[in-house]
Amino acid sequence: MADPQNASPVTTVDLGDLDDLDDDLDALAAAATEPPPDPELAAAATEPPPDPEPAAPAIPPVEPLARAKELLRSHPLIDGYNGLAPVLRSMHWYDLEAGESLLETDVPRLRRGGIGAQFWSLQETADRADAPSLGATLELIDLVRATVAVCPEGLRLALSADDVVDTRNCGRISVLLGPMAGPALGDSLAALRAMYTLGVRSVSLAGSRWTRNSGLTPFGHEMVREMNRLGVLVDLSGCSPDTMRRTFGVTRAPVLLSHQVEPLPDDVLRGLRTNNGVCMVMCTPGTLAETADRLDRIREIAGPGSVALSGAHDTGAAHAAGLQDVSCMPRMIAELLERGWPESDITNLTWSNVARVLRGTEFAARAARPRRAPSRVTIGALDL
Amino acid sequence: MDTPTDHLQRARELLAAHPVVDGHNDLPWALREHVRYDLDRMDIGADQKGRLHTDIPRLRSGGVGAQFWSVYVRSDMAGDTAVSATLEQIDIVDQLLERYPADLARALSAEDMEIARDEGRIASLMGAEGGHSINNSLATLRALYALGVRYMTLTHNDNIAWADSATDEPRVGGLSAFGHEVVREMNRIGMLVDLSHVAETTMRHALATSVAPVIFSHSSSRAVCDHPRNIPDDVLALLPANGGVAMATFVPKFILPAAVEWTHAADENMRAHGLHHLDTTAEAMKIHEAFEAANPRPVPTAATVADHLDHMREVAGIDHIGIGGDFDGTAFTPAGLEDVAGYPNLIAELLRRGWSDADLAKLTWQNAVRALRAAEDVAADLQTTRGPSNVTIGELDTV
After folding, report:
1. In Å, how far is A187's CA from the nearest CA of chain B?
2. Residue B282 lies in a domain
3. What is the C-alpha separation between B163 and B194, in angstroms, rounded?
4. Which residue, among A90, A130, A197, A198, would best test binding to B if mutated, counting the most B CBs under 10 Å from its CB?
5. Is B218 in the active site?
6. Do A142 and B139 make contact, defined as CB atoms within 8 angstroms?
7. Phi-psi region at A174: left, alpha or beta (left = phi > 0; alpha = psi -120 to 50)
8. Identified catalytic residue from B7, B18, B22, B24
9. Where residue B341 sits, what CATH number does that domain have?
10. 3-state secondary structure at position B322
11. How far is B94 from B29, CA to CA, in rounded Å?
12. Which of B7, B132, B197, B308 is catalytic?
């Protein structure tokens, strides 16, 4: 597996200098992919000191993982997609603040992962066959609100870009409601407005009647315009490239893709750059290096301003060793540092790009509201 | 001696200080049916006489200070369809508030109602009409609360899975176990339990379980007019202990015995012609019109409503009565109470019957505001000891 430690240019760091996160990761990775480690080495790995600061070198060595963590302290990760909400629904009891080993997400690991904000999906996991429903979405919103309310030291519900910044400055982690499944809106603009009032800030268009036939119907245009008017992020994950192209032509706000599986065509990536939107690359499937390859490609074609990350934890998707939970994100950043990403590109990736999309969406809403009344059009009237 | 004009003048003065809190108005549904929510085509800021019972000028002249707008959806709707339609109804109330900010003020609490009154605006609250609007989900109930809904009528005309309606065949015998849990959760979040439309058994069950005041948003007295939509005396007698409020309604076919009989006869006539009694085809209407020509429709007056209020006052007490006109939710209205401008006529009638200013202030304003405030206090207490309930109907009710 790709291990930033192995590839580190600093060869003088011995095992005793690894901090405890790395111990965990290495132990897990070793257990997953390799024969049991040498007991002596393993014992050495658990020895203090936990801090990677070397004793007294003349020039501090640039250790990518340490650098990644430092960058994440000032520019924490805004993680585009997490599947915790539907998973919690089936658990009788959980304590996210103390930590929950059955999950891939909890507050201690979010903190270790340098995550400052996270979108909590309101979509069903893929194993649930039932179509997305309004009722199920309302239940998930309720569950997220209740969960956040009982984790006041760790989590805060964020409804705006300002909230995300305030929450970071308070040392808490923002939870953003979304994306919700577009089909759950039941083709109702009033339902969209109700969801906004309840705190939903992102809607995934895929699967809606008005994105079918590989495009965006007239009612779909109206939905996107209403999302713009409200300040709801337009999530194009899983849409056909034609739907994406059509949406670029309609939306006044930057779009995002929080959980795109299929590789995007180059012209769509360039369209994303023009739109000022962001593609949040999922840390699954494949190894850490393969995820980094996807990030490289998006950065190269869409530009460093249009690339971000989605952990996609607790979604039921398998994660490679080294990416198995939310605490692993610094490894991903370390890998990119090793690949030569400038630090400004890294801070764009973790924080600034998504923050810009949030602000851009809010700005578009402020611009639209005085010019446009709430839309009351029905799908029947427009799409026939 | 006071002349009728004097009574009306005094009624208006009283209403200026203690305006009407009306428990139920179906303007949202009327806007949906008439103009598909197109407020450009139906401007309630202007006179809509002849098209609607309700508009802002007439609310003003009627002395209305607070209105529970019903976010009713048809009780044959179910599942997501009912929830989604309820969200649309809430949405149109939001749009009304945005469109008429000088006249309508969003009110989410008793305090908001008082602030709105002091600002000279009409406090606008929302009430859901029927448990079908929450689709057996306590999370959806909480979502409605978060969107501003402050009461829920447990059923409309049809039974729902967890509660029996007054106008359907008994099924669960009042509230099911899940129905009791809905009432408890409404208490916990501070949403008033509305017992209009529900079966007597449901009324008694809910009153036994609720630790907050309940309301009847638009129901009158069954002793005065025997109709299942009205409240039996023994239930009215439970209100003092509960702190709740029975808000008398104006719907002719519920409040005037002659109108109840007439409606039965008219329905019978339709069936005798082999038609369903709610048939509105041209042929059916012709038969119905012929019946109405031969048998004039009995029309109640403000005095009929006053008869109900006199009796309800006697049984429940002056602190437990209010007004819920059901305007725009009924095709016909009493003489003198034709529309929302009519409330002063009712107050004048009660003055004529010797009601004091203090009595009338309780009837119009104070009782309803007190009930909402008490529900808020109960909720604040309960929330210190109880978290949200996530029980499902499947867990509690064995079907």
Report:
1. 10
2. no
3. 12
4. A197
5. yes
6. yes
7. beta
8. B24
9. 3.20.20.140
10. strand
11. 14
12. B197
Residues of chain A positioned with their CB less than 8 A from the CB of B388: 142, 146
Judge whether B197 counts as a catalytic residue. Answer: yes
Contact list in B for residue A138 (CB cut-off 8 A) is 83, 137, 139-140, 143
- Which pair of structure tokens corresponds to residue A198? 């309840």
| CA–CA gap between residue B235 and residue B204 (Å, rounded) | 7
Q: How many CA atoms, within 13 angstroms, populate the side-chain half-sphere of residue A296?
A: 13
ipTM over 0.90: yes
Domain ranges of chain A: 16-50, 66-371
| Residue B212 near residue B192 (C-beta atoms within 8 A) | yes
**Number of domains forming the structure of chain B:** 1
A201, A177 in Cβ contact below 8 A?
Answer: yes
B156 is a catalytic site residue = yes
Hey, of A95, A130, A138, A147, which one would you mutate to test binding to chain B, going by the most B CBs within 10 A of its CB?
A138
A146·B387 Cβ contact <8 A? yes
Residue range(s) defining the domain that contains residue B52: 4-256+299-396
User: What DSSP string describes B60-123?
Assistant: HHTTEEEEEEE----TT--HHHHHHHHHHHHHHHHHHHHH-TTTEEE--SHHHHHHHHHHT-EE
The reply to whether CATH 3.30.1120.10 applies to domain A66-371 is no
Which is nearest to B92 in space by CA: B155, B39, B166?
Answer: B39
State the pTM of this model: 0.89
Chain centre distance of CA A372: 31
| Cα–Cα distance measured from residue A364 to residue B76, given in angstroms and rounded to the nearest whole number | 40
pLDDT tens for chain A, 384 residues: list them.
444 444 444 433 343 333 444 445 444 444 444 444 444 444 444 455 455 555 555 655 569 999 999 999 999 999 999 999 999 998 888 999 999 899 999 999 999 999 999 999 999 876 666 778 999 999 999 999 999 999 999 999 999 999 999 999 999 999 999 999 999 999 999 999 999 999 999 999 999 999 977 799 999 999 999 999 999 999 999 999 999 999 999 999 999 999 999 999 999 999 999 999 999 999 999 999 999 999 999 999 999 999 999 999 999 999 998 999 999 999 999 999 999 999 999 999 999 999 999 999 999 999 999 999 999 999 999 987
| Separation CA A269–CA A276 (nearest Å) | 11
**Active-site residue identified among B156, B205, B227, B320:** B156
**A vs B: CB pairs below 8 A:** 65
Candidate from B90, B95, B388 with C-beta closest to A146: B388
Do A179 and A204 form a contact (C-beta atoms < 8 A)?
Answer: yes
The residue count of chain A comes to 384
